[in-house]
Amino acid sequence: MQLFDLTGKVALVTGANTGIGQGIALALAEAGADIAAAGRSPATETVEKVRALGREADNFAADLSSVAAVQPLVDAVLGRFGRIDILVNNAGIIRRADAVDFTEEDWDAVIDTNLKTLFFLCQSVGRHMIERGSGKIINIASMLTFQGGIRVPSYTASKSGVGGLTKLLANEWAAKGVQVNAIAPGYIATNNTAALQADETRNRQIMERIPAGRWGDPADIGGAAVFLASKASDYVQGHILAVDGGWLAR
Asked: Model's pTM, two decimal places?
């Protein structure tokens, strides 16, 4: 189990206040990592739970809809913890409308948060990791990294871009000791999917498509994150790991 031990590591997790981000932060903490939780909404509950596990944790306010937040965030985390060993780019937004009606405002808002800021956060933390000769970056992709979806054109474009950037950064940084990979969650039971779970018809349709026969839990994503953050994945580069209960296999 030493392959999965994260003792002494510092993980910066964006969007860690709830759902998948919280699940990842707690899993990394259980494996031994200290947690820097970043986002617009304070991850107060997550920080408390991490501290209850005996790990260090702090909140870092950052509006990741703008690249302007990137360097101040990285500087603040380095000032507090002295290092960043793991970066999890989980923060993201979604806007829904038919493609023929989709607005430029909704396009820019999603692309800026999900793709532009993600890249520049990778860049800033990547410089630090390259200088130290080691690091793990985990981007949160989506089923729509592989599929088109409907009524979410900017989200689909952003998550397709996340997949491409993950591979590009792996190509450039693998030889420098930095592993860059991604996780593509399937249907995960969180506050963001509560409406779908409550819709009897849509919930049944989703369940029928998932070979595992259940919605995923944030902890399912957390386990994958521990693998990609640990020595166990040192030879995994530019991979997009689908954690989807078999959705893509059907």
From this structure: 0.97
